[in-house]
Amino acid sequence: MDALVSTRTSLALKAITREWAELNPVTSFFQCDDKTDQHIAGDEHDRVQSAGAGGVSSQAAAELLGEELPPPATGVRVSKLSQATPLAFTIPAGNDYLLIARTSNRCEVTFDFGSGAHRGEIRYGHMLLHAASTHSLWWLSRPDQTLIIRIPEEMFRHAWDNDAVDPWPGIMRMENFRQDSLVTQILARLAAELTRSRSVNLAFTRCLLYQLCTHLVRRYSEAVDVSIKQNGMPPSRLKKVVEFITDHIEDDLSLARIAKVAGISRYYFCREFKKSMGVTPQRYVLQQRIEKAKTLLQGTSMTITEISARLRFPTPSHFTSTFRRIVGVTPTSFRM
Length: 336
Prior knowledge:
The strands form two sheets. Strands 1-8-7-10-5-2 form a six-stranded mixed beta sheet, with helices on one face. A six-stranded antiparallel beta sheet has the order 3-4-11-6-9-12. Helix 3 (153-161) crosses helix 5 (202-220) and helix 11 (304-310) packs across helix 12. Helix content is 47%, strand content 16%. It is α+β, with helices and mostly antiparallel strands.
């Protein structure tokens, strides 16, 4: 029986790969290196010419299988994917929003909401928000450490109404994954609460959901997104700063030093950088040091102590705890 399931899965993956290659000219993501941390795909994507996702999904992908966690609030559904989740699966259409977030490690992904296939690599902190008005087709090289949460639009409206006086503008439909570590952290805490052995604290889960929805409407609603584009750091200046951080990730990167590269005051730099990147400069530097640590762990024989010192962590234990908090596993486990 296991051999039959394995054979069917293999044939399904071959079929989905072949059909997407033949029917969907795919625009690849930029690689998730240190210079493209804000989001990992371009704005342009090719459209399906001969067939949509429906034909492919019905022939080659199973319906989403994951651990359905207890509902944290009415109408909200949280799925925690595992190693048992099929690599290729579909998510049925609905009247809510889909929020897909990666909570640890890198994996390859291909997805299609019916308007074109996207392929790339996602890692901790990457998330995608999209209306579930049509079913979507997915392939993940490592489904585990991925959370999918379905949120009714009414919850976003409620968060907006309590946070603004303007009419509800609607949530932006993302065509590509974006870097938003805060979203991933909230979802990780939510999943941890929903999987605890004792009874779930619904007051706490509702608080997390409200925090999540408020952040999303502030950051990604149609009205707010326009403001970010207008008032964020100019692309040329942001590129200069990001490249400087990448090139000097092993150096002492004080806020004053980075702001000097940008040519603006520390206060103004912090504000504009966060608008553009979604995280503070200090948080971004920390994330990039962890990414550099991953490279060193996988590509060198350096010890944990040597990597910790090279990336300017105060102590090896501080490096280990920070790595585990961000990645989800210890440096030693990641290297294995």
